[in-house]
Write a structure and sequence with these properties.
Two copies of one chain form a homodimer. Helices cover 53% and strands 12% of the residues of chain A.
């Protein structure tokens, strides 16, 4: 039997910063529990305006996202801030770690009760990240996090979703990984608020930073008052450059507030969430439609489409009629 | 002014194998033209049951997807078959080539009128691949393709979508790229019908194949009559192993037919397409709702959610009420 879920007790626990309550709430969200609407309503009532600052980190496998995340956790902890970490990167040692057991770096923070670390699996769930991330953010916010770091791999569509979710998006590169051109090809040069060339003690770091600067300025007309993404060189494993990275993150945060762009991003984030919830509900309804004989209407229509007897648009019409 | 679109003429052109008509139809689909429903209906009327065999190729950047695709094109052409290629890989030289100009390998086939090559950009469009791919397949099918190869990068969600779209999915690995364990972490060991360890002339190819075999057999109870994914070693750049790869593809195709699994996959593919179309329509409707003052209802609700005045589930209710 599944444990009974006492939503009020869990939300109360999260407010007190109880790590087990936080973990259980995020698990319920990740698993798509039927109690999620109730949980979300309780969290909104408990929290009001979201307070935590959300920083997304993205980049190709191997650029050092986890090490940088860990270094940022240390930096924000040194200020006495509470930090949440959501790893939604399928190649991250946090999420993929079960296979290799290399959660080593994050172990530094495992016993610090001012840090909540959580991996989320979204593999195979199209739009799963868009759906679950804002909900998980809300849990960490209620738990009193001042800063939430979201780590995701920069290939495919997840990095676009993360940019839509974060207040500040950090794009990480490393020299000798195919460099800035690879990043441009992967489409991640459009989403960064701050760029970090990590592993900057390796050959080619200056060249990568230069290339990146050229690509960022090329063809992007910048108006006055617009944010110009800075490039920071870091060696996250030794902490080199992390202070400067944090300073640039703070500068972006100030710009978000002063320009009003931060408020607009938050409204945009809420709009995406509301839309995703409405779409998910519609999808569930569409799958539950039954024919007179009790069979799935979607499957009946799909069989007709597969044989060419019906076109898919007419089938979509009939599905929702 | 945009060129007027004569759908009937374009579909007629595609039936005659006219490459320009094929390219124009796929462009209209890629751009989400309002004429797409009409185009799809005309294609279904022209084609009836889809005839072309669809083979998906996926794997991490650098494993040699494009080279393998090119070698497979040559192999099927040698049989006198018409071949279509859809590259939906953002790191592919076919799609990303505009940046680097390295479409070299595919140049071999550029002047062969029995080959249609087409790249599709889906970057930033969540579900864009699910939506556009079946439509593009239909165009290539009407154009008389016997085989359609879809190439996509194996990170994120696109490879799961491709597996849902293809009759046969080929997962490519290369030795020394992080190997089979990386593939397992990226979740691509669940979707392959055939595995190819490419660049098999490099050190470590045998070890990669062995690791892969262990991972594939481990924990997967295989029933009689089930398909057991074979592992082929290839050096696509020299053609080594391509004959064996094609033989395994043919063997899988026969299994699909004999077991009935092929028919079920096609119905499943149609179901995904119908559902995606219905969801897209719902999404467009949800965005078009207006408040009494003509403002976007989604934005009004999102602003309330952003300030904590409303929870997102209640907002989703109100959006569609």
């Amino acid at each position: 039997l599944a444990r009974p879920v006492d939503v009020d007790a869990l939300v109360d626990g999260a407010r007190r910063g109880d790590a087990r309550s936080v973990a259980r709430l995020i698990s319920l969200i990740e698993d798509g529990s039927p109690r999620v609407p109730e949980i979300t309503k309780a969290l909104v009532t408990a929290a009001g305006v979201e307070r935590a600052r959300v920083i997304g980190l993205t980049g190709s496998p191997g650029v050092g996202k986890s090490t940088t995340t860990s270094a940022l956790v240390s930096a924000f902890r040194a200020r006495g801030q509470r930090v949440g970490v959501l790893a939604v990167d399928p190649t991250s040692p946090f999420t993929g770690g079960a296979l290799l057991g290399d959660r080593v770096r994050m172990q530094d923070h495992a016993t610090d009760d001012g840090v909540f670390i959580r991996s989320m699996a979204t593999r195979g769930h199209l739009g799963g990240l868009a759906w679950a991330t804002p909900q998980a953010l809300r849990v960490l916010d209620v738990a009193g996090c001042d800063v939430i770091l979201i780590e995701t791999v920069g290939v495919g569509q997840s990095e676009v979703e993360i940019a839509a979710t974060a207040d500040t998006t950090v794009v990480l590169l490393a020299p000798g990984m195919g460099d800035a051109i690879q990043a441009a090809k992967a489409g991640i040069l459009e989403i960064g608020d701050v760029y970090a060339v990590n592993k900057a003690d390796r050959d080619g770091a200056d060249a990568t930073a230069r290339e990146l600067r050229m690509m960022l300025t090329h063809g992007q007309p910048r108006e006055a008052g617009q944010w110009r993404p800075p490039i920071v060189k870091t060696v996250a494993s030794t902490g080199q450059g992390i202070e400067e990275l944090v300073a640039e993150l703070d500068r972006h945060q100030e710009w978000l507030t002063e320009s009003g762009a931060g408020g607009r991003r938050r409204v945009q984030r809420a709009a995406s969430e509301v839309e995703a919830l409405a779409v998910a509900r519609f999808r569930a309804q569409a799958r539950s439609f039954r024919d007179d004989d009790g069979g799935s209407r979607l499957e009946t229509l799909a069989a007709q489409v597969a044989t060419g007897a019906l076109d898919p648009y007419s089938a979509a019409d009939q599905l929702t009629a």
